[in-house]
């Protein structure tokens, strides 16, 4: 039950974050369309709308612990491969062995 609750909480956090990021951007956009004298707000809207993809990437991918852990494991394996000056790619077993010893 704890695993399902954790999954639900992570899902809820992602949904709320997305609603804030996307909702605020489009609310500003509607205000700008209705009131032409708010030109500086139009620039803020344009920048926020352009950065929505970055915000989505950060919220849905980069802030997930599992993704960060895999990136750390991949980086450790690459650094280990470079430090041994070996041009052959490492096998999955070698990567796991390196990561087991690094922790």
Task: Provide keyphrases for this structure.
103 residues; 2 domains
Question: Would you give an account of this structure?
Answer:
The structure is a single chain. The chain is mainly alpha-helical. It folds into 2 domains: 1-63; 64-103, no CATH class. Helices cover 83% and strands 0% of the residues. The protein is built from 5 helices and no strands. The longest helix has 33 residues, at 2-34. The protein is elongated, with a radius of gyration of 22 Å.
Compose a concise summary of this entry.
The protein is mainly α. The chain has helices spanning 2-34, 39-50, 52-62, 65-83, 92-102.
Set down the secondary structure blueprint:
Blueprint: H1 2-34, H2 39-50, H3 52-62, H4 65-83, H5 92-102
Helix pairs in contact: 1-2, 1-3, 4-5
| Cα-atom radius of gyration | 22 Å
Which structural class do the helices and strands define? mainly alpha
- The rounded distance between the terminal residues' Cα atoms is 29 Å
Mean pLDDT across the residues is: 80
The best one-word shape is: elongated
* Sheet having the most strands: none
- Count of runs of 4 or more consecutive helical residues: 5
Query: pLDDT below 50 for ≥5 consecutive residues: which ranges?
Result: none
Number of strands: 0
What count of domains describes the coordinates?
Answer: 2
């Amino acid at each position: 039950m704890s695993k399902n609750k954790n999954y639900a909480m992570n899902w809820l956090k992602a949904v709320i974050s997305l609603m804030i990021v996307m909702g605020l951007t489009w609310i500003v956009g509607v205000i700008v369309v209705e009131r032409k004298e708010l030109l500086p707000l139009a620039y803020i809207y344009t920048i926020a709308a352009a950065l929505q993809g970055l915000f989505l990437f950060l919220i849905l991918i980069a802030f997930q612990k599992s993704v960060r852990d895999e990136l750390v494991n991949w980086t450790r394996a690459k650094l280990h491969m470079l430090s041994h000056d070996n041009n052959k790619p490492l096998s999955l077993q070698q990567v796991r062995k390196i990561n087991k010893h690094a922790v």
